[in-house]
Each structure stands twice: as C-alpha cells, then as structure tokens.
Design a protein that fits this description.
Distance between the termini: 44 Å
Shape: globular
Radius of gyration: 13 Å
Largest sheet: 2 strands, antiparallel
Strand order of the largest sheet: 1-2
Number of strands: 2
C-alpha cells in the first residue's frame, strides 16, 4: 500500500491495516517505509507504536476532570 492509498482510508481502516501488518510480523519501521510516512506523520494522525502494538490517540477534547 502506498501513501495515497493509506490516506484515503478511514480511521478504523487505518488502524486495522497497521495492526494487521504488525500481526503479520512486519517491523514498525518496515510498515512506515511501505506507506512512505515517518513516525511523526503517523503520530499527527493519532497512531502510535507502543511495545509492538498500534495505539490510538485519545479522543480529541478529552481532558482530566478537575
């Protein structure tokens, strides 16, 4: 999958794609190279690699109660 195809996906599809690639045994850096993105670009979209799993950014506007 190239960057253009990846960017056309909705949020759930992006998450599922990234998770399935990790589950298939690919390294996170290999996935980034295959979609032509950097770790920072992916983080701006709300996806992070934490201990071999893809994690989503918390819901926008989420704050801690006072």
């Amino acid at each position: 999958m190239n960057k253009e195809d990846y960017l056309k996906l909705d949020e759930n599809s992006k998450y599922n794609f990234l998770s399935s690639e990790l589950a298939a045994g690919k390294d996170f850096n290999q996935i980034l190279a295959s979609i032509g993105m950097s770790k920072e670009e992916l983080a701006k979209q709300g996806f992070y690699n934490v201990k071999g799993k893809i994690m989503r950014k918390p819901i926008k506007g989420y704050g801690t109660p006072k």
